[in-house]
Design brief:
By secondary structure, this protein is of the alpha/beta class. The chain is 39% helix and 18% strand. The strands form three sheets. Strands 6, 7, 8, 9, 10, 11, 12, 13, 14 and 15 form a ten-stranded mixed sheet that branches. Helix 1 packs across helix 4, helix 2 packs across helix 3 and helix 10 runs parallel beside helix 11.
Amino acid sequence: MKIASVTARWIRVPIPEEQRHRSDFGVASSFDMTLVRIGTECGVVGYGEAKATVASAGDNRALAVLVERELGPALIGEDPRNIARLWEMMYSGVRGHYALDRGHVFPVLGRRGITVSAISGIDMALWDILGRSLGAPVWRLLGGRRHRRMPAYASGGWAPAAEIGRQLQSYVERGGFRAVKMRVGVADGEPRHSAERVHAAREALGPDIDIMCDAHGTFGVAEAKRFCRLVEPCDIAWFEEPVTADDKRGLAEVRASTDIPIATGESESTRFAFRDLAELRAADIFQPDLAICGGITEAVRIAAIASAWQIRLAPHLWGGALMFAAGLHVSAASPAAHILEYSLGANPLLFELSTNPPVVRDGFVDIPDEPGLGVRIDEDFAARHTVT
């Protein structure tokens, strides 16, 4: 089996005005991703997803070019089943042969950013090919699933204090969720305003629904500590990205100041960043985004770090159907994984790009049995929304 083609398309789907939400990222007017397709000489095809930004919207032009014109050509003629070899070759570039011979990485400048995002999308597609070629789901190739289904939490929560309870309660009713996530942070102004919204949410939901709070890294250390004190009576399940990912020591300081579990990782790339978080005792929950962190291969390594440090795993799944499936398969096989993110914002790439989107029943998502990632791409939908 040999790789015959590697293509990448920027998929942009406009969001109707009445379904848009505003956050610290601005108004979400579209959902964007890079759709990676790898074809083999024997006809097996795999798909992957890469993202130019951790948020839903963003220009993916450079990312698509990077996949198709820089990384992709170096893979032509290679066996797509040698995934570990190809990952190291892509990460270390022209020094990849040294990495393979010496047993440690020799990365070029692109150790982060869209280079690792591009590797993520390609890696995902390679695992899809491997599973399809063997007639097995990816989770089986990773060691097997621990359960037939996994709990999920509803992710959204942008409404003001007067409406946040109603908004989150609607999530609970839609899928039987026992956990919900809301956004807090700089868009609220002061920490006390974010705290007011959290108190309103807890009052509306009662004591039996878990509430997660996501600041998107927008608080300073002192603000994050103040927020934690203000919401202490609300029994928060976790506080996500209290401060910028560039301040890992600050994040550790926040964690040391509170007993609210701290979650982070959606903005991080590769196992090396997560190693640093573990060594600093900066997090209770790791949240790698598989379209950014290095794909399935790197997520498995990150999950191993999490397990060794008694850190839980809850991948960032705010994206399309492929990155959701990739996170689901890794979570199914990892002993550190405990819950899945399920987007309830306007997300056409999760619910329309695939002809078999993930479904939540009674707060759980079934682990699929289909080969590979188990995602059936709607090619007509992808064609309609490809940016030319």
